[in-house]
Amino acid sequence: MMKFFILISLLMFLSCQKKLTKQEEATIFAGKAMQDIASGMMAEVQKAVDTMGAKKAVLYCRDFVPGYTQEKLATWSQKAREELGANSFRFRRISLRNRNPANTPNELEKAILEDWEKTGRAQPTGYERDGKIITLHPIKIASPLCLNCHGKIEQMNPDIVKEIRRLYPNDLAVGYSLGELRGAFLSEFTFPNEPK
After folding, report:
1. Residue in 147, 146, 142, 144 with CA at minimum distance from that of residue 3
2. In a domain, 151, yes or no
3. Segment 19-53, tens digit of pLDDT
4. Is the pLDDT of residue 144 over 60?
5. In the chain, how many domains are there?
6. How would DSSP label each residue in 33-88?
7. Phi then psi for 183, rounded to 5 degrees?
């Protein structure tokens, strides 16, 4: 997490020195969005665990996340239009070991995630595809709270394991340790065509 803030600070410092590229602007913007979305989501999950218990929080999380994501998408899409001049902004989470098959990365994203895992040097990155700017920001298992549902099966509460298997029969999103790479926050921007 600290490396992420250092990178953002460095990019902001460099912005004073030179005009940022669209890719750099998009990467900084997506980092801010990710921080907002992740911190809000973690706070809600913690509240659910505290009030319902971890097992019931699994169902709550499954039902809560899609609506929360849509709400945040609307907010950050508007900001992308206002702050960056973007036509559109979308985001989603991707992982090599996903819980939701919709979060499966494409081949290039898979290669980036595999490189991050192999080298241990996960850092925000991006590329352009089909006229879109794509950014990826690493998501790590940052809190013991995450291990309730994403930890090693033999260390998880058996009731939680049973509930996850009931809700997600093809789940791959377990077996993690604290600090381990969980996946990436992927953002996609489109911008008006600039005259040549």
Report:
1. 142
2. yes
3. 899 999 999 999 999 999 999 999 998 999 899 98
4. yes
5. 1
6. HHHHHHHHHHHHHHHHHHHH-HHHHHHHHHHHHHHHHHHHHHHHHHHHHHHH--SE
7. 165, -145
Q: Which domain, by its residues, includes 8? A: 2-12+25-190
Backbone phi and psi for residue 34, each to the nearest 5 degrees, phi listed first = -60, -45
Tell whether 168 is covered by a domain: yes
Q: Average pLDDT over the chain, rounded to whole?
A: 90
Which two three-digit tokens encode residue 163?
């509930």
| Within a domain: 196 | no
Q: What does the pLDDT read at residue 59?
A: 86
Give, in order, the Cα–Cα distances in Å from 132 to each of 3, 49, 135, 166. 26, 38, 10, 37
- As a whole number of angstroms, the distance between CA 113 and CA 132 comes to 20
- CA–CA distances in Å: residue 129 to residues 3, 73, 163, 170: 27, 21, 38, 30
Please tell me the distance from the alpha carbon of residue 154 to that of residue 142, in angstroms, as a whole number.
Answer: 20
Alpha helices (runs of H) in 53-179, residue ranges in sequence order? 54-84, 107-119, 144-150, 158-167
Other Cβ atoms within 10 Å of 60 Cβ, number: 16
Amino acid identity, residue 58? V
Check residue 15 and give its pLDDT: 55
Is position 18 within any domain?
no
Percent of the chain past pLDDT 90, that is, above it, reads 74
